[in-house]
Prior knowledge:
The chain is an alpha+beta fold. 42% of the residues lie in helices and 17% in strands. Among the domains are: 144-233, SH3 type barrels (Roll), CATH 2.30.30.60; 237-318, Alpha-Beta Plaits (2-Layer Sandwich), CATH 3.30.70.100. The protein contains ten helices and eleven strands. The chain has a five-stranded antiparallel beta sheet with strand order 7-6-5-4-8. A hairpin with a 3-residue loop joins strand 5 (193-200) and strand 6 (204-209). The protein is elongated. The protein starts with a helix and ends in a 31-residue tail after the last helix.
Amino acid sequence: xxxxxxLTLLVCLWGIWSSSLxxxxxxxxxxxxxxxxxxxxxxxPSLLRPSPLPPGPGGPANAGAAIDAPLxxxxxxxxxxxxxxxxAAAVTLMAARNLPGFLEMAVFSRLRFExxxxxxxxxxxxxxxxxxxVVVVAQGLGLSWNKVQWLAAAITVGIGxxxxxxxxxxxxxxxxxxxxxxxxxxxxxxxxxxxxxTRIQIRATTIRDWDxxxxxxxxxxxxxxxxxxxxxxDSITRILCTVGVxxxxxxxxxxxxxxxxxxxxxxxxxxxxxxxxxESFGDSALNFTLRAHVSRTDQRMTTLSDLNASILDAFRQAxxxxxxxQRDLHVRSLPPDFRTPPAPTPSPG
Length: 349
């Protein structure tokens, strides 16, 4: 809003004082550098004006002429053109920098966009604005395609040899924005790092993990590698609570207790319904697994902690023993002179 107000103020001041400032119109007659002569019949770009003939009798033949006859009809870049180019560059930077906030305030807050769609649209518009700004600045400086062909060829060779990774990451970033396998706000797991996607830029994607550390991941790895997106199409996820009880425990009672605990928790969904499975006969315990679903990924840890605490309290009240590892020692033989040591005599007092 501050930039919009400043730009509006400048435009209004220009409309008021432009007719009273003839010095500004004189800037259009101050050449900075000349371009190649324009052939007859070819229009000169709007920002480029033909240089006027030198005054005085004899025209170009005058000894005091400031320019030669061939340059008299050649387009040039004036000081006014340079000022317009600088203004176009400033407007381009301003628009590219303030576009996300403006769209969030004026458009996205009133429309229901799918998560990540607003960011993809904003990033695409930012790239388009920068591209248009570069074209306008190049045209204002008199840089046509036939003059920068060698530069484009050099950039192409550089991409082929030394910048292929940068170019691959740039293309991968465009694929991420349009195909959207990863969106801003998604919870992903890459290798052994899990976190929230905070930014998708030209070269890399930023992931903030649960310790508030930021992982800078090249876009190419998200396109060609494997990762887990926990919230791509559905935010409902399943949690597992595994508990082992002693062998003398009542299996049916254990299952009912686990189901009641899951049904009473407010974050556990009724559909899909929670399920308890008698998994296996362990070395020291009967292993049970409670499977429950939560609607949001950020509820996983808190719900799992609450369920474990409730299971411990319910089993203690019901007298169900939570098993722990045990070892039985069997003595096969003893030496003939083995004697049981006498019990220690308590000391007096």
